[in-house]
Amino acid sequence: MITVSAVDDDQMLLDGFTAWLTSCPDLRMVTAARTVDELLREEADPADVVVLDLFLADGSDPVRNVRRLAELGRKVLVVSVVPHMTHGIDVVRAGARGFLTKDHDLRTLTEAVRAVARDGVAHSPELAFAWANDCGPDRPRLSTQERKILVAYASGMTLAAAARRAGVQPATAKKYLDRVKEKYCQVGRATYTKIDLANRVREDELDRYPRGCSTSPVSSRVASIRPAG
Question: Any idea where the Response regulatory domain is (predicted)?
Fold first, then answer.
């Protein structure tokens, strides 16, 4: 049984989602709240997944809301009527496991909840594309080979193994990694060690969405619902 808590000030959505879950034998709503503060106050036991509205009527900051929950180890799925993908990128960086716009149906929402509960990700096609092509000032532009070597090396491979995977010599792979470190330092994100490199891969989800990826969804409803990693 996957337990779900929802934070949303749209009572119609809360009622509809709660009613829908009664038809899902593997899902159960345990808490419905209008703010994150209320959720943390009222929730007797932490639910497996928190479905969180992006903008709440209390005016709380969406990124801070996600970060508060993520720091408590909560799995957060953000939903929003706002289609602007900058917000989606911001909350994913803050720790959200998924982001869906509210034009998706309840079946898609429950599929996303299941994916997040399994430590997966669940993003709309628009967010998957926006994330893959994010060119924010704190995110350096990496070449295809730089990214390939970075992801392989940060995953735990030796430099020689990462070079073989990319089809280059170890000396060339080392040059790519040196460039990657330099590019991250240039945007104010100090990167010197293998642990630093692994942190950048995790923070920027470089192992999930290759740049320039197609916007074609995996299904007709959600672009990416799959295990993380």
Answer: 3-117
- Pairwise CA distance, residues 119 & 105, whole Å: 22
What does the alpha-carbon distance between residue 153 and residue 163 come to, in Å, rounded to a whole number? 9
| Cβ neighbours for 36, distance < 8 A, ≥ 6 positions apart | 7, 52, 56, 60, 65, 68, 69
Closest CA to 69 of 45, 54, 52: 52
Q: What is the pLDDT of residues 219-229, one digit of tens each?
A: 334 444 443 43
Tokens of residue 9, six digits: 């000030």
Q: Supply the pTM of this predicted model.
A: 0.64
**Contact call for residues 113 and 79 (beta carbons, < 8 A):** no
For the chain, list the domains and their CATH numbers. Answer: 2-133+213-227 (3.40.50.2300), 144-204 (1.10.10.10)
Dihedral over Cα of 99, 108, 73, 39: its sign: positive
